[in-house]
């Protein structure tokens, strides 16, 4: 009996199958089932209202948590919704600035050393003097003392303690001054290998502002006039070929040398223009006008072309603004051009350098901005005047909070209310920095004096 169990199976070898073997037909392989067509998966559309809602919630939280003065800074810096009549100034009062000035005076007196210079830097939390010193900043401190004497020492019965400190300071520098054969005076500061032109400029400013305030009968006038003539002579002969100033000089012979510094360019220009304008050194006007033009072209125009937030322009800023203000108000042929330059630099400081958002002490900026405010106010620039008034009020209010012993004190100046007596009136370089440096105090006291003169007139 034939076996048919596998008659429907495929033959193992098709080559061996005869034509007559009908029972061993080749079975065709099954066709694969067609694969389903894959459709591209489209991403789900994000619902924009979730993102928008999150942003709105964060904005509400920020509006609640961040102080109003922060938003005032934003508006002033960006110019958002700012008009000719907008006033974003805060609550800073002239009486608070007067108190700040008295505290600063006390700090100067408490930190002048017996020789006549000052404690350079002091950590008030640790109650210790920090190492370091600098001739330029020490000379600037003497200028600050001279300005304070001009404010306090000429009122009522005067200020004998401040006068004594000022005389001690003048003696300190006089003892270290040397004269070149041409009559130019330079100084050799202790432990220095080179002299700094900025030191001479700041000493000249200290003498200029003393002489402006002192009565004609003051016994110190003759000595100060002699010293000033020598310092001005040095500045007049220290310019480089490009019209700026050599930054250094040799201690052996007082000969100027080295590349320029934007700080010293501005300081030297300010000293010469104030001497020419207020003390009748009229022979220096040609140098003033030439140096102002060259300084502007190189330290502002060229520097900002290279970088819009130039460190060179920052270093030149307040010194040039103060010097340009003196030119602008001196009734010279070039005066109108310098009105525009002071205002141009103020816009740069606010909108490009963003001084209101700097985290360190920016009192130096207000030395320039206050002069710009006065020019904007007197030259039919109401929008800019209001803008600068707001910047000054916000910024000076914050900086006053960094002064130890002031009722507006905040940050560490507030949290650690107990302090050594010599620290009272000192000014921090940031909100939580306990180091008190003499030049920071000097710059801020000068800014306070200017604010009382031009902004908070009473």
Observed structural traits:
458 residues; single chain; disordered N terminus; three-stranded antiparallel β-sheet; mainly alpha; 8 strands; 53% helix; Glycosyltransferase
CATH secondary-structure class of the domain at 132-260: Mainly Alpha
Count of β-strands: 8
One letter per element, helices H and strands E, the order comes to HHHEEHHEEEHHEEHHHHHHHEH
As residue ranges, the low-confidence spans are 1-27, 62-66
Q: What is the overall silhouette? A: globular
> Might you state the CATH topology name of the domain at 132-260?
Glycosyltransferase
Q: Strand-residue fraction?
A: under 5%
Average pLDDT value? Answer: 87
Number of alpha- plus pi-helical segments: 15
The value of Rg in angstroms is 36 Å
For the biggest β-sheet, the strand order reads 2-1-8
Distance between the termini: 134 Å
CATH architecture of the domain at 132-260: Alpha/alpha barrel
SSE-based structural type: mainly alpha
Largest sheet: 3 strands, antiparallel
Helix amount = 40-55%
Concise summary:
With 458 residues, the protein is mainly alpha-helical. It is built from 15 helices and eight strands.
Give an overview of the whole structure:
The protein has 15 helices and eight strands. It is mainly alpha-helical. It has a domain at 132-260: Glycosyltransferase (Alpha/alpha barrel). It has a three-stranded antiparallel beta sheet. A hairpin with a 4-residue loop joins strand 1 and strand 2. Helix 4 packs parallel to helix 6. The N and C termini lie far apart (134 Å). Residues 1-27 and 62-66 have low confidence and may be disordered.
